[in-house]
Design the sequence.
């Protein structure tokens, strides 16, 4: 009976993990969910085990004890719902903070890379752009500038790829469309 209770709680923990990993792919939040899921399962297991031990003392007859367990067992839907709500608030809060922290780190580095690019230090600029690029937070300017560097270095396929990525994020940029056409002409 105790394992059935634990499986129901684990179901809600796993469901919330799946929901947030789908909503926030690649986010650092996944690690927190794994730790919380393991902790929640352990905590609930200990809670259920203690309840069963108390019932064993109160009801020494096995059949009578199982009947009481059937009646008292189950999951508190209120706490399961509360857990999901808390995890949603946590998930969206972490996502917001992750973006804020990223921008505070990225902006001065981006400026440094742009200055290096303007002074012709393309490899150094590219290293910084690659370091500050983040899969969770799209910064179109990074792709635009990397495209320009690749074009200047004669790596037209990579330049075209970066311009395509930029244009997927900024589809109305006419300058980038013109640069993309120039790169395509160089490939052909």
Sequence:
């Amino acid at each position: 009976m105790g394992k059935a209770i634990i499986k129901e709680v684990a179901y809600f923990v796993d469901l919330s993990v799946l929901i947030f990993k789908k909503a926030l792919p690649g986010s650092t939040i996944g690690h927190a969910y794994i730790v919380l899921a393991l902790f929640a399962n352990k905590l609930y297991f200990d809670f259920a085990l203690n309840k069963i031990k108390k019932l064993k003392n109160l009801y020494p007859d096995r059949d009578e004890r199982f009947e009481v367990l059937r009646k008292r067992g189950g999951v508190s839907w209120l706490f399961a719902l509360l857990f999901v709500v808390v995890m949603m608030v946590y998930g969206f809060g972490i996502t917001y903070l992750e973006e804020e922290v990223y921008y505070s780190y990225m902006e001065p580095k981006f400026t440094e890379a742009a200055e290096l690019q303007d002074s012709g230090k393309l490899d150094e600029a590219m290293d910084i752009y690659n370091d500050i690029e983040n899969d969770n937070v799209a910064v179109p300017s990074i792709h635009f500038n990397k495209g320009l560097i690749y074009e200047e270095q004669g790596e037209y396929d990579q330049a075209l790829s970066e311009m395509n990525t930029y244009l997927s994020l900024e589809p109305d940029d006419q300058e980038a469309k013109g640069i993309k056409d120039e790169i395509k002409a160089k490939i052909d």
